[in-house]
Amino acid sequence: MEIFGYIASVLIGVSLGLIGGGGSIFTVPVLVYLFGIDAFLATEYSLFIVGISSAVGSVSYFKNGLVNVKTVLIFGIPSVVSIFLTRNFLLPFIPDSIFRMGNFVMTKNIFLLLIFAGLMIAASYKMIRKNKKGLEGNTKSLQKNNAFLAAGEGSVVGFLTGLVGAGGGFMIIPALVNFLKMPMKVAIGTSLVIISFNSIIGFFSSVNHVKVDWTFLLSLTFIAIIGIVIGTQLSKKINGEKLKPLFGWFILIMGVYIILKEIIL
């Protein structure tokens, strides 16, 4: 199964580079089901893999002026606060065994995976549905109300990132496009910076709670970086928006599979 895990790690990077999100939603299932890693540890590893690979992917967007630094701060600061609080004060207090119903025991790992599955299904909906609003806009239109909405969503993204290790690109990009009227290319570049900012800080704020296999983690991160370089190059030739529904259907199937596997199978 590990060979499929390494192949999937490339796809994580390709997705991040091509559509600015979606890759992080693959990471935890890949770590849990293909590498057999504990779900809690997988959320920690996911933060590092997604954070470093997103940082590398954002470099070309920075060079081309496709990153809005002001928005990174508006969105990123509330996210980081939420991540820190979630990983240091919420996750450690979730019991290993939450409740029992007959022969079924809701463990902490199953609980995290079910939340993650729900997040995947929500992400798939946003990717599959057609956006009827125009994607192009004025990057200077940072109206106060919209900025507050973006900051609020940043807090929500931070909470989810801290809880399940997902970067939240599927939530960040719609917020940047719809609230801040940001062009799609700028939204993707800005999203990558926010994801890397959130994930790396989230990882190092809670890394003391787990024992890290750095050889494995760095190897997987390197493979994901190869993927994001490929995805970034492909984004110059392929419209990532057209591929979003395909990613969405795949994520939907994975989300349903996780629910069935953890509760029924």
Number of strands: 2
What does the average pLDDT come to? 82
SS content category:
mainly alpha
Helix content: over 70%
- For the largest sheet, list the strands in their spatial order: 1-2
Overall geometry comes to: globular
Separation of termini?
19 Å
Give the SSE order as H and E letters: HHHHEEHHHHHH
Low-confidence stretches: 132-142
Total of DSSP H or I helical runs spanning 4+ residues = 10
Number of domains: 1
Task: Sketch the major β-sheet.
Answer: 2 strands, antiparallel
Strand content: under 5%
Radius of gyration computed on alpha carbons: 17 Å
Short description:
With 265 residues, the chain is mainly α.
Word description of this protein:
- By secondary structure, this protein is mainly alpha-helical.
- Helix content is 75%, strand content 3%.
- It has helices spanning 2-19, 23-34, 39-63, 69-90, 108-128, 144-164, 169-178, 184-206, 214-235, 240-263, and strands at residues 97-101, 104-107.
- Strands 1-2 form a two-stranded antiparallel ribbon.
- The longest helix is centred in the N-terminal third of the chain and has 25 residues, at 39-63.
- It is globular.
- It is found in: Cell membrane; Membrane.
- It is a multi-pass membrane protein.
- InterPro entries: TM_pro_TauE-like, TSUP/Inactive_protease-like.
